[in-house]
Each structure stands twice: as C-alpha cells, then as structure tokens.
C-alpha cells in the first residue's frame, strides 16, 4: 500500500552566512515555521537547532568552538552547527547544516521517497542533498536507504551486468551422445500445412537435424525423436530441452526411462542453458528468410537445403564441418568435380583408415570447443560479479511473464527452500 506524502517544511539556508575564514556573528535569522503537526516533516532551521541541542556528539563540537578550539571543518552561526563542504578541490567551501541522526530519516524521505524526488538513484539523491545538508558517512546512508526502499526494490531496472560467471557444458567424448532439442516457432503456416520446426543439435559435432511439423504436440515430438534420430543414429546418453509441455510430459518420460536416457531441463526463463540449439535457430531463421516468397508460405521447401549448407560448412567453434565430425569423412558436394577414377580400397584398409580419421577428429574437436569456451568465459566474466545463494536466503524473484509496464518487476522476497546445481 502506498502512503500519502507528508507535507514538508523546507530545509533552507539563511542568506547572511559569514565567510568561513571570518568570525561568525551572533545575530539570528528568523524563518517562518508551519504549525506543528504530527504528519509534517519539519526540516526548518529551528528544528535542526533543537535536534542538534539534543545530540551529544554535535554538542561537543559546538562547545569546542565556543571555547575557541580549532574545528576547521565546522562553523557555528546563530547557534546552528554548519559543515564546510566543497564541490571540488578548487571551489570555495559552502555552509550546510550538520544534520543530527534523529533527522536523517526525514531528510532521506524528503529527497528520495517524496513524489517531488520520485525514488531516483544514489547519484541524483546525493546531488540534491549535498548542497543542503551533511552528516557523517552521508553517501553510505543514502545507499543503504535506497537499497532498503520497498518501491525501488519492486520496480528497479537493472542496468548493470547480471551477476554470475559463465559455466559451460563439458563437451562429450563422442558424437550423438548429448543432443539439444528445441522448437522453432511460431511461423506462418506453409502451403504444406507446417507451422513448427523441431530442431535437434549434436553437442560435439554441431550436426543439426530438423523436421517441419504441422503442430508441436507430444506425439509429434516423440515420433521425430524416435524416427529421425534414435532409429538412425542410436540412443543418446543425454538430451537437453526446455520445460515446454511437448518435452516435459509422460510420453517422453517413458521413452527416456525405457532407453536409459538422461533428460536434463534448462533453467526457467534462461534459454542460454540450451544455447547450442537456440543459437542455430537464430542462424537458420535468417538464412531461411532469404529464400521465402512474398507470402512467406514456402519456408519449408528450402529447410533441408539450408540444413545441408550449415552441416557442410566449417563451424567456428570446432574448426571442422559438422558432417565431417559426425561421420568421419568429407562429403562430396553437388558442385564438386567428378573424379576421373574411383579407387576402391580393401575393406580392412578402409575401416582402419576411418577409425584413425575419426580418432583424430574426435580428439581435436573437444580441445577446440574448450578453447572457444574459455575465450567466451573470459569475455563474459569481465567486470561481472559472482554470487551464490544458500537455502534459507531471501531473494527477490523477477517477474518474467504477464507483466505490463506499470506492474512490479520483482516479487516480494521469497525464501530459498532447495538448490539444484551450483
């Protein structure tokens, strides 16, 4: 619930303050004061004077000045203690009232919480307060006040790098062991009635299999996994998907359990977990659009051609073509010249050469992937804080869906009851 802002008696400075190097006079400026009311935030100089009289630390400084002792950073004028502050090393120092601790909350509420201050950040709030007031560790106090502000916590926009260092998936030992799956959708229905594309990407070779589908039902998903991958390339050790109902369901669970496949799900609202296939989706979407007609209803006609071009091109991460890594040989492309002679090696020789070739490729590919992962991690982690959470910690939870512009961006602090992974 939002509270109505309090009326404010402004914090003002008298116009006849002396020069810091001169002896202050004893005359007092009379300031108008609003009638006392419990809902009024009183920041008048009379209120400051009364609060200073009640503060032992400030009283001690005042007594030292009256006794003639040197207090180079403070000056007493009309029984009010002022601090001498400067904007920079060359500027003339100005007088601002020393605000006792009892009045600090009122000052912060005035210059941060009030509608005329509008809950801006530390820099703007400090800029408004600094010419008008001073107290020890003022910037830290402003930072703590804003950090604990209920409205700021629920509506703040994070413009800094998200905390947390990059953690990469360890490359597998062979091809078709770890598979990433994702739906590319939605797109305009094609003439053939297709509207979705189920994409399967091999983690090591980056080889991609994709199938256009009229829907993304559980049955269609299971059929593609069985017919297009398992019956062709064998059973993978692990598949990684998002938490969509087409992947997280009883049928897929039966398939993975029966075939002893480890099914890992990406973190909610964090597609980077399944970034292998997400990155390809962005790539082939752009390439596919270049061959569509004006109605964009023939996109599935060129789907397999785009896949062929991708699988037979050098991948920047591995240094090899996905086809070469997946099958242990280079592919003869339609544009390659026909060899004048064909040499058919002995069966045993061909098999041994294939094994040696695959061993070289499989050994070099993980090294290249890890080298690229280290470079990406170095770039990502720069100027980024790391953070960790424990069970029992209270955290704000970001509102990722169903939010309009004026809704809160963060949900009230929630208690962590369990942890999965690091």
From TrEMBL:
Domain Integrase catalytic span(s) in chain numbering: 167-330
SUPFAM superfamilies: Ribonuclease H-like
Gene3D superfamilies attached to this UniProt entry: 1.10.340.70, Ribonuclease H-like superfamily/Ribonuclease H (3.30.420.10)
A single GO BP: DNA integration
Pfam families: Integrase_H2C2, rve
UniProt region (Disordered), positions on chain: 1-35
Biased composition (Low complexity): 10-27
PROSITE patterns: INTEGRASE
Source organism superkingdom: Eukaryota
Any one GO molecular-function label of the UniProt entry: nucleic acid binding
Family matches, as PANTHER family: INTEGRASE CATALYTIC DOMAIN-CONTAINING PROTEIN (PTHR37984:SF15), PROTEIN CBG26694 (PTHR37984)
Protein name in UniProt: Integrase catalytic domain-containing protein
Organism per entry: Didymodactylos carnosus
